[in-house]
Amino acid sequence: MTTPRTVLVTGGNRGIGFAIAEEFVALGHRVAVTARTGEGPVGSLTVRADVTDAASIDAAFTTIEADLGPVEVVVANAGITRDMLLLRMTEEDFVSVIDTNLTGAFRVVKRASKSMLKARFGRVILVSSVVGMLGSAGQVNYAASKSGLIGLARSLTRELGSRGITANVVAPGFIETEMTAELPETQQAEYKKSIPAGRFARATEVAKVITWLAGDDSSYISGAVIPVDGGLGMGH
Prior knowledge:
- The chain is built from 8 helices and 7 strands, in the order βαββαβαβααβαααβ.
- It is an alpha/beta fold.
- α2 (54-68) runs parallel beside α3 (91-119).
- 45% of the residues are buried.
């Protein structure tokens, strides 16, 4: 049985983030989610926050600490896309994606690390993407932000590893979400051809890997990139 922890999932109001928060709740953890709009799953505490704004992150942590106790597990999941071919991509398209997906993770992890260092325990889990290693045409900004998380986790491991804190990256492939459901059937079939498993992942399959990484059994894993992609990114 895993020790109940205080968990924060950023962007926990939809998609993978919602499934991650739901899984932590089901396992008996104290769960908070940040969201700009919408709500996290039943049994979680939803706090309004924007990962591009350090003051709002600080306020969110203060609320969570008062209600649930110091954050012991942080899952940096909040992310956006602004897909566009390089020559058409504006600097704003690039900067906004980096600011949310990469700098946003830095802001959240920096704030979380204070109580983790005090407790000499922490789990940092960064939600990346298979695209962070494979690359993707039209996603220069997104791929750069997602591969940046790997450098962040590995540097954190070197800095904080001796204090009982681990930092890992989970890299999902194609997941069954509202976004993939909207793709035309022919395009979905095409994508599935490139996945050895022959199907998209269920969001819960990503969530279960993340809850395991946050648990007691994974305390000697840090600086790792764990693909949940049905074999799509093998060798990268």
